[in-house]
Amino acid sequence: MSSQTAATPMIDVTVDGEVVQVPEGATLLDACRTKGADTPTLCYLETLTPVNVCRVCVVELEGSRTLVPSCSRAAYHGAVVETDSPRVRHSRKLVLELLASTVDLSRASGDVKRWMDRYDVDTARFGPAAAPGERDGRDPGHHHASDGATAETVAQPVKIHDEMYVRDYSKCILCYRCVEACGEDAQNSFAIAVAGRGFDARISTEFDRKLDQSACVYCGNCIGVCPTGALVFKSEYDHREAGTWDEAKQNVTRTVCPYCGVGCNLELHVQANEIVKVTSPMDHSVTQGHLCIKGRFGWQFVQNRGSE
Amino acid sequence: MVILWGSNARETHPIFFHHLLKALHSGARLYAVDPRRTSSAQWADVWLGLDVGTDIALANAVGREIIAQGLVNQEFVEHATTGFEDYRAAVEPCTLEQAERITGVPGDAIRALAHAYAGAKNAQLCWTLGITEHHNAVDNVLALINLALLTGQVGRPGSGINPLRGQNNVQGGGDMGALPNKLPGFQDVQDDELRAKFERAWDCTIPPKNGWHLTQMFEAMERRDLRGLYVIGENPAQSEADADHANALLRGLDHLVVQDIFLTKTAEFADVVLPAAAGWAEAEGTVTSSERRVQRVRKALDPPGEARDDVDILCELAKRFGHDWGQPTAEEIWDELRSLSPMHAGMSYARLDALGGIQWPCPDEDHPGSTYLHGRLWKRPAEGRLAPFSVVEDVPPADELTDEYPVRLTSGRRLDSYNTGVQSGGFASPLRRPETLDICEADGQRWGIADGERVRVHSRRGAIEMTVRYVDELRPGLTFTTFHFPDEAETNKLTNPAWDRRSGTAEFKAAAIRIEKLEAAVGAGG
């Protein structure tokens, strides 16, 4: 066995007036969490490289002219951070209002709802929602500014093309998590990216091809990282549509994938003796939240056996 | 540096490949040795597209180049190995020119691989069934081990030889003694002392001789020495090479018992079928992964109908045979195993839970598990038995290419499917399409066979109809298919049962075939 490496040196960071210690190499977000400051995040995920797009985790950093994204800014010894100043509150509120007025956040986590309450988010601030347009048919970048009487939204039809994925981009906040999981952070298939700019930006396959004609290999890692329910497993979607999805009645059991020898951990979400969803634990050294098509979707065979 | 030799891990071990990609993004180099330019090979810095079954010729040439250029890790060879001189003499004729002629790989690429491997600070040499599904499988493995010994790329963090296991518990099966020559913990059944330990614990007599492995069992069936068979969780009617022959033997048994979660093709021949619970979702227990990590599987579902936990079935059978084994829990059985198998002794269920699995050997409850093996070879003096070089000879595939069977067929797996499809056939994969005989376009044009055309494929064992598909990853003369869909393409009617006398594995990777146009067939286009 190799010997243990020396412990990482600790540094001092002042968060909201309190000094906390974090290991060298930690981020300001780590320091905020160490202090216990409930710091909102949307695009950030422990297993992905930060892309700094949502700006909801911003904090004031002494000596910095602008607010900084805490998820990606490296902490340094002596850093002084404010997480609840008027400027921070204002910025977080605005980010959440812009998102909530354009995107259906009904499936976002309870955390998001808590943050919206905390920052007093007014979802109607920009007026009533505009009638759904032909968003998907428009070339990226061909958006025209609205007249201001209504709030434009990203409402659009749900995409269901197979028995595995449901993509409801009415719920997409463009956090890039799916793009990162499909790309260099995990699967490296690069089947999706953000196409277009500004309000017309959207998650797209190359040349907007159908998923089964794209580079997608259906690993489901995009669904695994989606924070708003824009990407869901068909099994979950069907239950929700039928009104039978009931997380209170679900047990989650950790086991090992029945296919190859890598030893990926699976979390089986079981409701009424039926697997309704399979996820992967973020904290396991083998899988780090990711799976392949067989592990994520290949469980059906145990349920295809008759009861006799 | 990583070498993938006969492994398409991108599709067969996708999450391992995620880790590999992290290394590549951090600057590691990847060399892929494979007859096909697979989706794994497409990530490689260098792809060595050798002819099927010429692995030893290639490995010996790599070894010779390392020796000839003075790249041998002299210190390691001297202190940790035996048999170097014999090896050196044996590979002396294996020049780059000769290897290029035999393998089809340019000498420059072989040289590049030799220099990169010998010069790397750390190197992993990983293989899969492209090495082991040959009639000389063990020699193939030994040829690769020789390279690790020459360069000292073994027994250190980041350096090692690594067979990627294809099933979630194929390693665990061996760990638990499901081998004809081993008791649990790889303890030799012919060792009187070890056997006595188990006999005391189990209060029984254990025959002091090796049993038969799968392939020997089929030979014994042929001789009628074996007339009754109890099959647990295996589908030999569709997974054995030369399927027609294997099925005739299965049908000819006096008594066949099949214990499975499905009524498989094999179960259809059975006198008794014992419906079983699915080990990974309907029962408690452990499995061991490719990195020797023992992890718990847990019961999340009640099994359907009369299906029962394997342990219940075995204990009930024991009762009928006059032995009361009680109703042990999975943990009780595991704790008995820990008391008998020193390499598992430190792995309590509580520790397996807390540590996310433990890699063996783990001799006591203070031991963190072992992330790599063979570190003893770097002690000075090296501990235990020194690692022997092996002289291995290049022998071509048993299923020879002739005028009558001029085309090589190799077999493999696809990303969304698994073995005979018993499990993976259960979900509606958007990637799945009817099984095909994959060929390269140049061959198609040469043979006058269109993309999408139905053809009859003959081998020395049998013939089946298949649909041809043009693919980019094959070189002329090489064809590919899988055995995932035996109901539509019974590939194992074609494969060669010639098997390695030491491992018992058949030559699934190298069949000789002839492709015949169907009469009045028209190219369906593609």
Tell me what you see in this structure.
The complex is a heterodimer of chains A (308) and B (526). Chain A is of the alpha+beta class. Chain A has helices spanning 28-35, 86-102, 110-118, 177-182, 221-225, 234-242, 293-297; strands at 10-15, 18-23, 58-61, 68-69, 79-82, 165-167, 192-195, 202-205, 231-233, 250-256, 265-271, 274-279. Chain A folds into two domains: 7-126, Ubiquitin-like (UB roll) (Roll), CATH 3.10.20; 165-303, N-terminal domain of TfIIb. Chain A has a five-stranded mixed β-sheet with strand order 2-1-5-3-4, with helices on both faces. The longest helix of chain A is centred in the first third of the chain and has 17 residues, at 86-102. Chain A is globular and about 65 Å long. Chain B folds into three domains: 2-164, Dimethylsulfoxide Reductase, domain 2 (3-Layer(aba) Sandwich); 170-359, Rossmann fold; 407-517, Beta Barrel (Barwin-like endoglucanases). In chain B, β7 (182-183) and β8 (187-188) form a beta hairpin. The relative contact order of chain B is 0.12. Chains A and B meet through β10, β11 and α7 of A and α2 and β13 of B.
Brief account:
The complex is a heterodimer of chains A (308) and B (526). With 308 residues, chain A is α+β, with helices and mostly antiparallel strands.
Write the topology of this structure.
The complex is a heterodimer of chains A (308) and B (526).
Chain A: E1 10-15, E2 18-23, H1 28-35, E3 58-61, E4 68-69, E5 79-82, H2 86-102, H3 110-118, E6 165-167, H4 177-182, E7 192-195, E8 202-205, H5 221-225, E9 231-233, H6 234-242, E10 250-256, E11 265-271, E12 274-279, H7 293-297
Parallel strand pairs in A: 1-5
Antiparallel strand pairs in A: 1-2, 3-4, 3-5, 6-9, 7-8, 10-11, 11-12
Chain B: E1 2-5, H1 9-12, H2 14-25, E2 30-33, E3 46-48, H3 55-68, H4 74-80, E4 81-82, H5 84-91, H6 96-103, H7 107-119, E5 124-127, H8 129-132, H9 137-151, E6 160-163, H10 170-175, E7 182-183, E8 187-188, H11 192-202, H12 214-223, E9 228-232, H13 236-239, H14 243-251, E10 255-260, H15 265-268, E11 272-275, E12 285-288, E13 293-297, H16 310-320, H17 330-340, H18 349-355, E14 358-359, E15 387-388, E16 407-412, E17 437-439, H19 441-447, E18 454-458, E19 463-470, E20 478-482, E21 496-499, E22 506-507, E23 511-517
Parallel strand pairs in B: 1-2, 1-5, 2-3, 4-15, 5-6, 9-10, 10-11, 16-20, 17-19
Antiparallel strand pairs in B: 7-8, 12-13, 13-14, 16-23, 18-19, 18-23, 21-22
